């Protein structure tokens, strides 16, 4: 009798397992089923909103929003709010998502500026993945931006803060994988007040002369992993802003662009902090900076516990740079306070540098940099036709620390 009961139990468990369709966990919600057209012209914003609304209500354990390949979906600025579902949501993007090409066609809900294009806010357990492209069509913004300086009747929308491509804010446990981001009006991807974000296998691409088109920007971001990505932009490949900590960046091809930057920190006397950053296996190709830390005069706070290692420079200018006199306009004066920079390690950095000095460490007179370590550095000048000569140089001031192993060019201020 007992045997029979166990058999019965077994049969019913197996029966339940096989009769539950496996797709119930990954129920698919295609934006097409919500009326998206995907011809690149029709506004598909509402379809995306409706699909998200249903996914939010879904009882499926890990539902998938599908943006199918072979189509182009035009989206106005929109926010996906994640305060809806405790489980995982998968955003599968294989098609192209595109923004309106003319800044005046952007629907910014009555706001003077469009600060963000696509936003995921307050999400937890989100996976955004696929082979698709997110195209911000920023070229018109950039062209008009060039006429902003000194012009009397400024185009308010274009001359103010331009929109970020994808923003992930107030969120945790987010994976971003495989996508291509291109031509954002401003920075391409921002993690703002986000934790446990894993970004990998991304391609980010904008012309080398496009203004402020950072690849990935971090702000108040913690436990962020950025891995195995190619970033070619007109500004920092990755910029690490105030309030960020526990950041791991590896296997990045950067360039054109302005390098991987911590800061700029401490603008207008602000107290800003960044700590525990690890950057490794990066190639900088023809970038204007490489491994960079920049702070403004007069700031407070710190940048500390930072490692840049296993880095190759292919003709970057200033492959290694700490600049505590950062200033992007004319009227900057020296102050008696500065963001404190300490415990910074540069290790195994080699290759070529386009312009002297290959190593530039300019620390504040009032608040010198401490515990700066350089170990195994070899940077040669790019062999080209200009008259600079072939000897790269190094500059440093107000630095306390050590040079170890082979360090070329030698740093006069480190023993
Ligand atoms: C990277 O993403 C592409 C799609 O963009 C995909 O085809 C490829 O398999 C991914 N590679 C890895 C290593 O995940
Ligand atoms: C950073 O990530 C890489 C690859 O994802 C890993 O190999 C490495 O151990 C991590 N480093 C730290 C300091 O967490
Ligand atoms: C700056 O902020 C950090 C972290 O929030 C804090 O620990 C520190 O005391 C602040 N420093 C000043 C001078 O306000």
Automatic annotation (TrEMBL):
<dbReference type="GO" id="GO:0071555">
    <property type="term" value="P:cell wall organization"/>
</dbReference>
<keyword id="KW-0961">Cell wall biogenesis/degradation</keyword>
<keyword id="KW-0677">Repeat</keyword>
<dbReference type="GO" id="GO:0005975">
    <property type="term" value="P:carbohydrate metabolic process"/>
</dbReference>
<dbReference type="InterPro" id="IPR012334">
    <property type="entry name" value="Pectin_lyas_fold"/>
</dbReference>
<dbReference type="InterPro" id="IPR011050">
    <property type="entry name" value="Pectin_lyase_fold/virulence"/>
</dbReference>
<dbReference type="Pfam" id="PF00295">
    <property type="entry name" value="Glyco_hydro_28"/>
</dbReference>
<feature type="active site">
    <location>
        <position position="258"/>
    </location>
</feature>
<dbReference type="GO" id="GO:0004650">
    <property type="term" value="F:polygalacturonase activity"/>
</dbReference>
<keyword id="KW-0134">Cell wall</keyword>
<keyword id="KW-0732">Signal</keyword>
<keyword id="KW-0378">Hydrolase</keyword>
<feature type="signal peptide">
    <location>
        <begin position="1"/>
        <end position="19"/>
    </location>
</feature>
<dbReference type="InterPro" id="IPR000743">
    <property type="entry name" value="Glyco_hydro_28"/>
</dbReference>
<comment type="similarity">
    <text>Belongs to the glycosyl hydrolase 28 family.</text>
</comment>
<keyword id="KW-0326">Glycosidase</keyword>
<keyword id="KW-0456">Lyase</keyword>
<protein>
    <recommendedName>
        <fullName>endo-polygalacturonase</fullName>
        <ecNumber>3.2.1.15</ecNumber>
    </recommendedName>
</protein>
<keyword id="KW-0964">Secreted</keyword>
<dbReference type="GO" id="GO:0016829">
    <property type="term" value="F:lyase activity"/>
</dbReference>
